[in-house]
């Protein structure tokens, strides 16, 4: 296991390095001067220009420039946003928690509802119910997320007027950011309106989270169903049935732990498209997260914001997918065996 | 001279034929197949079928509802948008941009992914791992972010969608083909072929590939539906196809201003995307379940 952990950490380092290299090469190709695209200062004074040249070693060769770039980014210098003149790192820290809140919540919805429905689709006796679950998941998988978001906000936000359709919380409430998670912050704040504010934040979260949850939900249902059908054919299930165990016990003790292993793996593979969908959802619902920040960055040609946003999101995805890979190996000794056999 | 039947047994169907039989036994898959064929025909002939050109503006009929509405007319079957452009014609022209473009992207990235994936799959040790893991970095950039990066470098436009989505899609093909080839390479029938003296090219093409094609086919159908959704999402975010273009995602974005007044300008392109992706997914699902018994 330690050897595996070590190889995964090496892989993380190598992949992140390639990622930074790709970004470095892309930032050299932006249609502006290199000093501007790296630092975000459009009209630098002489001193600033010298500082930038020195920081990024712009007069040296590409390799030294790359190491300088890497050093700057690792030390947390992402330059300033040419649009707001703020430090990019500060802005990134402000928008990341909102994205986490949204994606955690919708991931939770997807797993919480997806797994039981997947079980139902695999084991239920009602053929019509199973078919309709499959049909619904296939449709959910094919629906364009921006259209779904618009339609949901039309119905529930405008026509019915049940749910707010933009932002993270009503602007009337003034909440001091502590953790950045609005749900937690409202509860932590010591104002008199913290309970209504929490309620309001929760209502704001529902529509974007449900829209974003549709893709992972459908995948979780389908994969859970497939995995359970596979597991049910195994001999140890028949053995458990032969011993006269109760169905619920077989399901909870023998089927689900084995069936959830491929589900975990598929969650790791899904992260990329989940992030893509998250960006679109954030834009539609004006959610103040990384996605809408990044998209407004591209509209305003804010090159430092684009680099920082892409770097942050893809590093997160690399990290999480390797983490899920590790988790998958830790709980599933079979895959470890395959791993050693292949070497 | 009639063929003489020597053997008592029935004709043994080829794997391809058996696959087709399983596939056609699933009515949903067949419906999906017909829909995809229909879309392919539209991709070629849509400009000749469409009653109006995609950009023609008729100032007399702004925001006309679809024909089944009492206020609608049959001349504009699906109604018109805020500039008086016929939505039916725009949808037809958009087939080429959204569906046709996705086919192009998938074909291009399949070729690249196939070459790199099979090379790295056939190789051993450090070379193989460098080739396959180098692309892991690209795999971790979501296609939308990749497209944003490409747009930042080259500016928005439909051509750059090709590059953005394509670059993001190549690693997926590489990965799938690499894994499949590598897995087959460990099996005993491959060793047998090697002992018979087949060189590695022969092993690859005649021994391994027949067992890898199904992975490629499944990956292609998944990639097509992902590509359609990506193209449309980029069009919607105004990073892909630009405003007058009848690309479906861009049409949704253009209809957004009149969402409350004329919801059909958003609904109809959305339904078109849903229909296309759904039919591709139905075919993909059918293929997957038809190939499953052969794979196991």
From TrEMBL, chain B:
Alphabetic keyword roster: Cell inner membrane, Cell membrane, Membrane, Transmembrane, Transmembrane helix, Transport
TM spans (from-to): 28-50, 99-122, 134-155, 215-241, 261-283
Residue span, ABC transmembrane type-1 domain: 99-284
Entry protein name: Binding-protein-dependent transport systems inner membrane component
Organism from which the protein derives: Shewanella frigidimarina (strain NCIMB 400)
CDD domains in UniProt: TM_PBP2
Gene3D superfamilies from the UniProt entry: MetI-like
Pfam families from the UniProt entry: BPD_transp_1 (PF00528), OppC_N (PF12911)
Main subcellular location of this protein, as a coarse class: membrane
Location in or out of the cell: Cell inner membrane; Cell membrane
């Amino acid at each position: 296991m330690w050897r595996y952990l070590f190889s995964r950490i090496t892989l993380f380092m190598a992949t992140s390095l390639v990622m930074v290299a790709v970004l470095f090469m892309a930032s050299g190709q932006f249609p502006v001067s290199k000093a501007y695209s790296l630092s975000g200062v459009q009209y630098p004074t002489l001193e600033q220009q010298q500082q930038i040249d020195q920081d990024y070693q712009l007069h040296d060769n590409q390799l030294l420039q790359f190491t300088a770039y890497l050093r700057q980014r690792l030390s947390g210098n992402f330059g300033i946003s040419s649009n707001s003149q703020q430090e990019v790192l500060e802005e990134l820290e402000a928008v990341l928690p909102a994205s986490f809140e949204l994606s955690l919540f919708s991931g939770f919805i997807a797993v919480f509802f997806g797994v039981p429905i997947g079980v139902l689709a695999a084991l239920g006796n009602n053929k019509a119910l199973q078919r309709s679950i499959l049909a619904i998941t296939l449709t959910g998988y094919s629906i364009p997320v921006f259209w779904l978001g618009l339609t949901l906000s039309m119905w529930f936000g405008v026509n019915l007027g049940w749910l707010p359709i933009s932002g993270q919380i009503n602007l009337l409430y003034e909440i001091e950011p502590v953790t950045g998670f609005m749900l937690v912050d409202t509860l932590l704040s010591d104002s008199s309106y913290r309970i209504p504010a929490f309620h309001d934040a929760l209502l704001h979260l529902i529509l974007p989270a449900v829209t974003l949850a549709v893709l992972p939900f459908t995948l979780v249902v389908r994969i859970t169903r497939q995995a359970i059908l596979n597991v049910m054919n195994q001999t140890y299930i028949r053995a458990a049935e032969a011993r006269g165990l109760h169905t619920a016990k077989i399901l909870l003790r023998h089927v689900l732990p084995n069936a959830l292993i491929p589900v975990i793996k598929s969650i790791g593979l899904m992260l990329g498209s989940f992030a893509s969908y998250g960006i679109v959802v954030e834009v539609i619902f004006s959610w103040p997260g990384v996605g809408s920040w990044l998209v407004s960055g591209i509209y305003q040609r804010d090159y430092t914001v684009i680099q920082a946003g892409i770097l942050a999101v893809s590093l997160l995805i690399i990290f999480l997918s390797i983490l899920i890979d590790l988790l998958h190996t830790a709980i599933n000794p079979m895959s470890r065996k395959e791993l050693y056999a292949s070497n | 001279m009639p063929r003489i039947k020597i053997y008592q047994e029935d004709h043994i169907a080829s794997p391809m034929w058996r696959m087709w039989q399983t596939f056609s036994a699933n009515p949903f898959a067949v419906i999906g197949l017909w829909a995809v064929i229909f879309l392919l025909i539209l991709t070629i002939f849509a400009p000749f079928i469409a009653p109006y050109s995609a950009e023609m503006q008729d100032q007399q009929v702004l925001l006309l509802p679809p024909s089944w509405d009492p206020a609608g007319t049959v001349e504009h079957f699906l109604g018109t948008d805020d500039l008086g452009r016929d939505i039916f014609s725009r949808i037809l022209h958009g087939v080429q941009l959204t569906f046709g473009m996705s086919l192009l992207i998938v074909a291009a990235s399949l070729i690249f992914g196939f070459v790199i994936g099979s090379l790295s799959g056939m190789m051993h040790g450090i070379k193989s791992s460098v080739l396959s893991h180098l692309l892991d970095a690209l795999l971790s950039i979501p296609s939308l972010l990749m497209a944003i990066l490409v747009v930042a470098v080259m500016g928005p436009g439909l051509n750059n969608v090709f590059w953005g989505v394509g670059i993001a899609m190549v690693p997926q093909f590489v990965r799938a083909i690499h894994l499949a080839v590598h897995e087959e390479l460990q099996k005993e029938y491959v060793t047998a072929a090697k002992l018979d003296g087949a060189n590695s090219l022969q092993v690859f093409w005649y021994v391994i590939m027949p067992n890898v094609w199904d992975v490629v086919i499944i990956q292609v159908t998944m990639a097509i539906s992902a590509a359609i959704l990506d193209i449309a999402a980029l069009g919607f975010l105004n990073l892909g196809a630009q405003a007058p273009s009848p690309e479906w995602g861009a049409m949704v974005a253009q209809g957004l201003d009149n969402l409350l007044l004329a919801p059909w300008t958003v609904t109809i392109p959305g339904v078109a995307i849903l229909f296309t992706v759904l039919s591709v997914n139905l075919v993909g699902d059918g293929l997957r379940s038809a190939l499953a018994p052969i794979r196991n």
